Amino acid sequence: MRKWIKTIGYVFVIPSTILMAMSTSVHADTGNTTPPTLLAQSAVLMDMTTGQIIYEKNPYEKLYPASITKIMTALLALKYGHLNDPIKASVNAVNQEPDKVYLVPGEVHSLKQMLYGLLIDSANDAAVAIAEHYGGSVKGFANMMNQEAKQLGAINTHFVNPNGLQNANHYTCAYDMALIARQAMQNPEFRKIVSTKFYLWKGKEWTSNLSNLNEMLWSYPGANGVKTGWTDQAEQTMVVTATRNGHTLLAVLMKVPLLGEMQTDATNLLNYGFSSFQESTILPTGTKVASLSLGGHHATLSLESPLTALMPVHQTKKTSTSIAIPNTFTNVPVTQGLESIRDNRMPIPLVSPSPIVHSLIIAPIAYGVQKGAVIGSATIDFEHMKMTLPLQIDETIPVPVTPPNRLPELPALSLTLVCLGFSLIGRSGIKKTSKKKSRSSVMGYPRAMDK
User: Fold this and answer.
1) Active-site choice (42, 90, 122, 219)
2) Is 305 a residue of the active site?
3) What single-letter DSSP state applies at residue 158?
4) Deepest in the core among 158, 163, 222, 274, taking most CB within 10 A?
5) Buried b (16+ CB within 10 A) or exposed e, 251-290
6) What is the pLDDT along the chain (451 residues), one digit of tens a residue?
7) Domain region containing 300
8) Is 293 a catalytic residue?
9) Active site residue 359
10) What's phi and psi for 331, nearest 5 deg?
């Protein structure tokens, strides 16, 4: 019965989706520079290139993710697996609630096939099959998910399953999901799957032409990912990416009451990002960020390339002239030939009116390093993003001038040698005189016959 319901659903949903695409695409890119009023309880708009947040609404509020959880499931599967890995469905996987691709116990598909079912059809059975294969169990895989989340900086997230089915301890926030989705989109196979509109699924007992549940692929020009979700408790959730003129934005919307409202929110949010922001130079090349001392010589360090970010269109001609430099970087002592790493341990706000130097890494430095040489990097925080830029040295560190290795002062040496010479000559003369006197004495005695 569920299979027939799902098939009938495609018959009605797909035409309605196309009609919605025709209506919503007309309103795309209206040029509105006013932040939109969203029905979503929580939302984030991120620049995919830098990770900069250009819009936020309750970004850290803990909410239920529903099936956008599967972004993390796919991320881990692609990280630890290979596309041709054979994934076998267990009884536990088969017994998951729909949506699913109706696996049967013992059915085997490649990881690639399972990922298409997971991300296009939001298959809960495929999610559990993947989790059990790479984590040993659902719990083991959930531990992997939580570890990966923490490494990505998603500190307000906790997963207990790979598919997003409702659990009070399974939660995340819009900002964390942006971090996770941005990382997943670095993988070309992931990008290919989430941008696919249709996929022919050939299962052991079920064959279907799967239709991607992300309606934005049809309704929004330039949309190319990533995943939607829904449960009664989570309501509608979505992570969507779109590219215009080579620039990609990522939007996360959580807890939206209705599907149509979520699409409207996503359209308005993406329109706002593309029409209201433009890449601008925040800190130009040559901005001083630290100074160092080496062997009594001092030099400043500056950015070898500019810090750029998205800024409101009316501010694009302005560049920031202020940069917050903690005291730990005002003068960095460097030991010749040793790598010097200095991290700022002070808490740094995610949003600040000016860029903040977060950390420095200085490579081994030797005397004689020339002005303009790239000797390290600086990580700078600005508007939720951390950008690592190369550092150049602004002054040459000269080679120390040391006196040449030479003998002790000549006058003292000469006097020593002269004295030693006279001493040896004197001792030699005394010995000769003694020998002469001895022979004279012996030869001077009168012989008996002379008497």
Assistant:
1) 122
2) no
3) B
4) 163
5) bbbbbbeebebbbbbbbbbbbbbbbbbeebbbbeeebebb
6) 444 444 444 444 444 444 444 444 334 444 557 899 999 999 999 999 989 999 999 999 999 999 999 999 999 999 999 999 999 999 999 999 999 999 999 999 999 999 999 999 999 999 999 999 999 999 999 999 999 999 999 999 999 999 999 999 999 999 999 999 999 999 999 999 999 999 999 999 999 999 999 999 999 999 999 999 999 999 999 999 999 999 999 999 999 999 999 999 999 999 999 999 988 888 999 999 999 888 788 899 999 999 988 888 876 555 556 888 888 888 887 877 766 766 665 555 555 668 888 888 888 888 888 999 998 899 888 877 888 899 999 999 888 776 555 544 545 555 555 555 556 555 555 555 444 444 444 444 344 343 3
7) 284-393
8) no
9) no
10) -155, 105
Number of structural domains in the chain:
2
User: CA 240, CA 260: separation in Å to the nearest integer?
Assistant: 15
**DSSP-assigned beta bridge partners for residue 341:** 361
* CATH for 102: 3.40.710.10
Residue 271 C-beta-side C-alpha neighbours within 13 Å: 24
For helices 70-80 and 111-120, the axis angle rounded to 10 degrees is: 160
- How far CA 69 is from CA of 30, 34, 181, 262, 408, in Å, comes to 32, 31, 10, 17, 79
Q: Which of 70, 100, 227, 255 is catalytic?
A: 70
Q: Which of 42, 57, 67, 211 is catalytic?
A: 67
> Does one domain contain both 266 and 300?
no
145, 76 contact by CB (below 8 A): yes
Cβ atoms within 10 A of the Cβ of 344, count?
18
Residues 262 and 152 in one domain: yes
Contacts of residue 59, Cβ cutoff 8 Å, sequence gap at least 6: 42, 43, 44, 53, 173, 174, 175
Task: Tell me the one-letter amino acid at 326.
Answer: P
The answer on 320 and 261 residing in a single domain is no
Q: Which of 393, 425, 446 is the last residue of a domain?
A: 393
The tokens 């692929």 sit on which residue? 217
Considering the domain architecture, whether residues 86 and 108 belong to the same structural domain is answered as: yes
